[in-house]
Amino acid sequence: MVRDSRPDAFVLAGDVYDRAVPPKEAVRLLDDFLVRLIRDEGVPMLMIAGNHDSPERLSFGSRFLEDQKLFVAGRCAPTSAPIVIQDVAFHLLPFGDPATVRFDLAQDDIRSHQDALAAQASQAAAKHPDGLRSVAVAHAFVIGGLESESESTISVGGTGEVDAKTFQFFDYTALGHLHRPQAPSSQVRYAGSLLKYSASEADHRKSITLVELPSTGAVQTTALPFTPRRDLRRVRGLCQDLLAGSDPGNREDYVFVELLDRGPVVDAMARLRQIYPNLLGLHLQDLADGESGLSAVDHRSLDPEALFARFFEETMGEALSQEERDVYREILSETENARCE
Known about the structure:
By secondary structure, this protein is an alpha/beta fold. It has ten helices and 16 strands. The strands form five sheets. The chain has a six-stranded mixed sheet with strand order 4-5-6-9-11-10, with helices on one face. It has a three-stranded parallel sheet with strand order 1-2-3. A three-stranded parallel sheet has the order 14-15-16. Helix 5 (98-105) runs parallel beside helix 6 (113-126).
């Protein structure tokens, strides 16, 4: 994609890694990518720490690497200057919890993620060179963004949310954190993750974002989609149908299966792995009416027969018949008689 589009810069808005101390294979992969991108293709790289990254580890050697056109921001600093490429000034606003940013910027009134990012944005605006267009690179959960199951929560209780208006000074803001490609506003955009990392991302269309910023006028973005070797899909159906090949998709994909069978399926995972070698998860469809209030009943108040009837209905999606109720009573009676003996 870089060779085809010949961009003036490549931006990675965190997370660079998925943990503070990444495995050696991930470090080696990033090193190989940076060599091919910067040395072989001649494209400058700008990246910031996300909430998964260790800012100190990520920014090791960053002052030396700037001469090689690799610009890394691990922690925010009051002395940081924008990076000018062509006629655009890039402002790197790395992720930091409020306490860290409060210390780094020596501003005692920073108490939330909104405060922390607003302070960084204000500092960047004050240092922006006249006559240049502006791009912010940040890592945050912007209000209105759609989450996925695989994202690590920035904070609890909504205090990690940031208003998109925080970036109103900038001509464009490249965001990291949320895995779904999306645009909270016309000038603020998440490129999304490179791959699908959970079942909740099965319907995502992963891509890289090509941003065109003319000397004047609106920003234009184009999604350049990825086609992975193996997709991640959700598959629904009866076990026997799936074993018979009813799913037309690629069997080598990473698959989460939802079975529609009306009862337990013996050894379903092992059997389905013969069809889907990369099966990741198995779920038996919940056939109970979610609005019936069955789960809200205090089960301690029910006698054994009523409790079993509730269990049967929640599991099978239909009420216990009189014949089935008679069988239950017979088995219960036999069990109680055996206990007395």
